[in-house]
Amino acid sequence: MRSKRTTILNLLDLLLVALASWYVIPPALLDRIIYLPLPFDNHIASSPTLSNLLGFLVLLTIRFSLGRKEARKTYLTRTISHLPAAWHPAVAGLVSLLVFLGVSQRGMWPTGDTLPAKLVPISILEEGNLDLNEFLPGIPHELAYGIHILNGQALSGQALSGQALAGRALAGQAHSAYPLGTSFSVLPVYAAYRWLFPDRFSQWREAYRQPGGDQSPRNIANRLERISAAMIAALCVVLFWLLAERETTQQKSLVWFSIAFALGTSLSSTAVTGLWQHGPGCLFILLTLWMLGKAESGLSRWLIGAGLSAAWAYWCRPTTLFITATFAVYVLITHRARALYFLVPCAMGGCGAIVFNHWMFGNLTGGYAGNMSLFVPFDPAVALAHLASPSRGLFLFSPFLVFAVIAGMRRLRKFPLDMSSFCLYAAMVQLILFSCWRTWTAGSAFGPRYLCEAAMLLCVAMTTSLADMNWTTWKGRVFAALVLFACILHLTGGSQGDRGWTANAYVQDSLGNAWNLPNSQIAWTFGFNP
Question: Fewer CB in 10 Å around end: N or C, the chain?
Answer without folding.
Answer: N
